[in-house]
Structure formats: C-alpha cells, structure tokens
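Thread: "does anyone have the structure for this chain?"

Original post by V.I.:
We have the sequence but no experimental structure in hand. Need at least a predicted one for the grant figures.
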Amino acid sequence: MKLKEEEFDRIVNRALGRIPPEIRNRMENIVISVQKRPSPELLESMEIPPDETLFGIFEGVPLSERSVMDPPLYPDTIFIFQEPLETEFSSQHELEEQIEITVVHEVAHYLGMSEEELEELGYA
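Reply from O.Q.:
Generated one for you, tokens below.
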C-alpha cells in the first residue's frame, strides 16, 4: 500500500488527535516527523536485525527522566517511518491501525514507559 505523503500525514495527525487529552496536554516541546525510512546508521546503532522492521522511534529525554533544573535545549522528536509501514500492511484499515499503534507507542516512550509496560497494554 502506497499513500501520498499528505494522506499519510493526515493519518498520523488523526492518530495524534485520538490520544487522550490528559496525555496530549503533556506533549510539550516535541516534534512529530514523518520520514520515508530509517537510515542504515540508525538501524545499525539500534542493532535492528535485517529481518526486523522499525516503524517509529522516540529520540529525546523521557518526561520521567527530566529535571526542572535541567530543561531540554532542543525539542524531542518522534519519527514515524512511512515506507516500512506501507510495505508491511496491505489494507488502508490495517495501515491506519498500525500508524496509531506506532504513534501511541512512541508517545508512551516520551512519557517514560518501558517496552514491558507497553507490551502489557498491547502496544509492543
């Protein structure tokens, strides 16, 4: 499934809009960036094997690890990778569902949740 960049961006924005307000209101100083694919360097640095797919990543300092005395200098970023998502899912419904899962997963990392906590909630 291939979508135009604008349509993919709209799906990501709809997913963000479905995040509960009590979480969305805590999302300050964060950028959501849609990229075509993760770079080979990123995959290597994360030790992602060639048979695994990366749909998104949070880069920054989770809220749970921040100090009032040491505020971040730059915005944190959530990257959503369009091509891996499109390649993996064949229907628009499946694609939209996975984009929402990916966005929520990365926002949860921003909030400080671990992979284990996300797995328990069904977002791993």
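V.I.: this helps a lot. The longest strand covers residues 30-35.
O.Q.: and The mean pLDDT is 87.
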